[in-house]
């Protein structure tokens, strides 16, 4: 589970006090520099493509609900910084358009039912600091394009199916603090450059 603490942005917190609510974009309007924070609200339904009509929010946190379906490709045009969809019933492949959200700093997709590989377009997310994909249904290998994400501090990927692969090149991630690659069907030895990650706290 990713916990992100921020002091520089005032978030719009929408509290829903009723169970089994269906997520809809509808006529929602939010001021600039705010976000949608709906954690553990028993939301069902699918992720609405119409969220692109809210172009100014920076955080979308829908963790721990009952949302199903796939991530809409249309979301690739939203300038998000934080996207958390962990612990839902989401499925399908990750749209390549997600790689267009170059403002994204944190992406958490753990505990879902996705399929297919982690798209190589994720390597476009040059501002990424946090990436969590534990037990999400993905196939390996970890794409080599992630090697350019030099701002990465927290990388957690687990339970990849498919063929075995070598340890990915993470040598550019000098500021890594947490690195967990569990059950990813990797072979060979741990690279020596890991010892150069002087900020590493969890391995």
Computed structural class: mainly beta
Average pLDDT: 84
N-to-C SSE string, H for helix and E for strand: EEEEEEEEEEEE
Number of helices: 0
Biggest beta sheet summary: 7 strands, parallel
- Termini separation: 16 Å
Strand arrangement within the widest β-sheet reads 1-2-4-6-8-9-11
Shape: globular
Contiguous runs where pLDDT drops below 50 for at least 5 residues: 1-33
Radius of gyration: 17 Å
What's the β-strand tally? 12
Summarize the amount of helix as a percent range: under 10%
In terms of DSSP E residues, the strand content is: 15-25%
Features:
single chain; 203 residues; mainly beta; 7-stranded parallel sheet; 12 strands; globular
Would you give an account of this structure?
The chain has strands spanning 35-37, 59-61, 68-69, 82-84, 89-92, 106-108, 113-114, 130-133, 154-158, 165-166, 178-182, 186-187. By secondary structure, the protein is an all-beta fold. The strands form three sheets. The protein has a seven-stranded parallel beta sheet with strand order 1-2-4-6-8-9-11, with no helix packed on it. The relative contact order is 0.12. The model is unreliable at 1-33 (pLDDT under 50).
Brief rundown of the structure:
The chain is built from no helices and twelve strands. The protein has 203 residues and is an all-beta fold.
List the helices and strands and how they pair.
Elements: E1 35-37, E2 59-61, E3 68-69, E4 82-84, E5 89-92, E6 106-108, E7 113-114, E8 130-133, E9 154-158, E10 165-166, E11 178-182, E12 186-187
Parallel strand pairs: 1-2, 2-4, 3-5, 4-6, 5-7, 6-8, 8-9, 9-11, 10-12
């Amino acid at each position: 589970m990713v916990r992100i603490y921020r002091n520089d942005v005032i978030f719009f917190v929408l509290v829903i006090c009723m169970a089994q609510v269906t997520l809809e974009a509808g006529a929602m309007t939010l001021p600039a520099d705010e976000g949608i924070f709906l954690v553990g609200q028993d939301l069902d339904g699918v992720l609405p493509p119409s969220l692109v009509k809210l172009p100014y929010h920076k955080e979308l946190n829908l963790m721990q609900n009952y949302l199903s379906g796939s991530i809409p490709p249309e979301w690739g045009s939203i300038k998000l910084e934080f996207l958390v969809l962990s612990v839902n019933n989401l499925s399908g492949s990750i749209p390549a358009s997600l790689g267009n959200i170059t403002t994204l700093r944190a992406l958490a997709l753990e505990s879902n039912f996705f399929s297919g590989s982690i798209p190589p377009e994720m390597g476009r997310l040059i501002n990424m600091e946090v990436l969590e994909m534990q037990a999400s249904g993905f196939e390996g290998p970890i794409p080599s394009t992630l090697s350019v994400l030099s701002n990465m501090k927290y990388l957690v990927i687990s339970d990849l199916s498919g063929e075995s692969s070598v340890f990915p090149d993470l040598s550019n991630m000098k500021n890594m603090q947490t690195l967990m690659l569990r059950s990813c069907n990797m072979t060979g030895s741990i690279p020596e450059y890991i010892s150069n990650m002087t900020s590493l706290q969890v391995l």
